[in-house]
Structure formats: C-alpha cells, structure tokens
Amino acid sequence: MALSKRQRAKAFRGAQYALLVVILLALAFLADWGEIRRAFFNLDIAASMFPGVITTALWNTISYTALGFVFGLALGLVLALMKLSSVAPYRWIATVYIEFFRGVPALLVFIALSFGVPLAFGLQFDIYSTVMLALGIVGAAYMAETIRAGIQAVPKGQLEAARSLGMSQGRTLRTVVIPQAFRIILPPLTNELILLTKDSSLIYIIGLARDQYELTKFGRETLSRSPSLTPILVVGLCYLLITLPLGYLSRYLERRTGGKKVRTPDSTEV
C-alpha cells in the first residue's frame, strides 16, 4: 500500500532522527573521554584563571566595547545626518567614509592607530583611546547606515504634523524624528554591540599590561602556559555571558517594536 505524502514525510523525519541517534551513540562509545576531558575540561587550569578572567578580562572587554559603541553611535548619528543633508559635499564625505570603513578590516584600523598615526603625526594614544577610536570609527560606518535607514522609516506625516505646529526643522529632528528612529533601530544597534564585543579581541596586537588584558588576550596568555585548550573554552563561555543576553535583548526589542524593518542601500533589512 502506497504511503501518503504526509506519511512519507513522517517516515523520512523518523529515519533522520534514528540516524542522528546512531551517530551520537557511536561517538559516545568510540570517543576517548579521558583525553577530551584533559584537552578541553581541565578543571585545575580553569580554576587558575579565576577570578582574573572575570575581574580583569571580562570587565575590560565590557569597558572597551562600551567606549567604542558610545563613540561609534555619536559619530554614526552625525554621518547619518550628513548623508541625508541637502548639502552635496556633506553627502559625499559621509558616503566615502561609510563605504571605506565598511570595506576595510577593523584590524587595519587598529594597526593604523597603534603604529601608523604615532609614526606619521607623533600622536600617541593610550589604550582606552585607541580602542575607543578604532572600534568607534569602524562601528560608526555600520551604525550610520542603520540610523539613516531608521530616520527615513519615520512616517512623513510625523514631520508634517510637527512643522504644522510651528516647530523648526532642527527641533523636529531632535524631538520627533530621531527618538522614533532610535525606537525602530534598537534591535540592529544591539546586534552591532555584539559585533563590537567580538571585534574588541583585536586589541591583542597592542602591547598591554596584564591589568589591561581583554578576554582573548587573557586566554592566549593562559593557553601559552598550559597543555590544554581549556583556557579557550573558558574565554568562549565568558563571551557568551555578554553576547547571549544581548541577543535575547535584541529579539525582545524587535518584538516590542512590532518587528518593523527598514531597508539599507545594500538591500539588507534591519
């Protein structure tokens, strides 16, 4: 008797589940769990990383990310307004900046600020300024497009109503347009914060004192002194302590804003 389409689909799913169970059982019986524990779950090495991995590395990662995000958000807002300006040179400058820094790796910006700028101009930045500028410069290029798209997503009727009440263009922008735009773009801005958190690991190219280590640098230093990959696992879990709550926050904000999306010029929805 021939199976119906639904029955065939159900049988196919059952076969996939059975295959997955067989694979997991084979891995469970064939794996050398003692070697896996020594390679990835060495509790003595993990214990030696505390409390420094939290009080120093995790805290520095959060601090560096916050500095870069605040600077990038401020600069991104300026760039977004420049790109929407009726003054053509402003639009050209913003477009060149955005396209350039979206196209180059963040690592090159770190190298330029750490080594190129001191050699060329004699300017020497401290660690916090370097991270703030490097992360902010790159992050601003992405946030500018997000903010620009959010501003354009605000209904034109809101602008017309504000102007009909006698508000100036600047006041309309500050009190009506930008607050509504930020409500729309909060979810993608949260995603940008996650990306900056991971990009903060690029600070490893800068010479750091031990109390300035962020998570990746802390993990690399511990790994160099241990015969196990446990430090990498611990550091990865610490990153998840930051990124998972931010991911849930992004989805929550998206539900709160009704899932409204805006489209950027590269056809990505935010």
UniProtKB/TrEMBL annotation:
Its main subcellular localisation, reduced to a broad class, is: membrane
Q: Which Pfam families match?
A: BPD_transp_1
The UniProt transmembrane annotation reads: 62-82, 103-121, 229-249
Where does this protein reside within or beyond the cell? Cell membrane
- The answer to whether the entry has keyword Transport is yes
Annotated ABC transmembrane type-1 domain ranges read 58-250
User: Topologically, how does it sit relative to the membrane?
Assistant: Multi-pass membrane protein
MF terms from GO for this chain are: transmembrane transporter activity
Coiled-coil annotated spans: none
Q: Which CDD domains match?
A: TM_PBP2 (cd06261)
> Which domain of life does the UniProt lineage start with?
Bacteria
Q: Which InterPro entries match?
A: AA_ABC_transptr_permease_3TM, ArtM/GltK/GlnP/TcyL/YhdX-like, MetI-like, MetI-like_sf
Q: Which SUPFAM superfamilies match?
A: MetI-like
Q: Which UniProt keywords apply?
A: Amino-acid transport, Cell membrane, Membrane, Transmembrane, Transmembrane helix, Transport
Record-stated family: Belongs to the binding-protein-dependent transport system permease family. HisMQ subfamily.
Q: What is this protein called?
A: Amino acid ABC transporter permease
Q: What is the lineage of its organism?
A: Bacteria, Bacillati, Actinomycetota, Actinomycetes, Pseudonocardiales
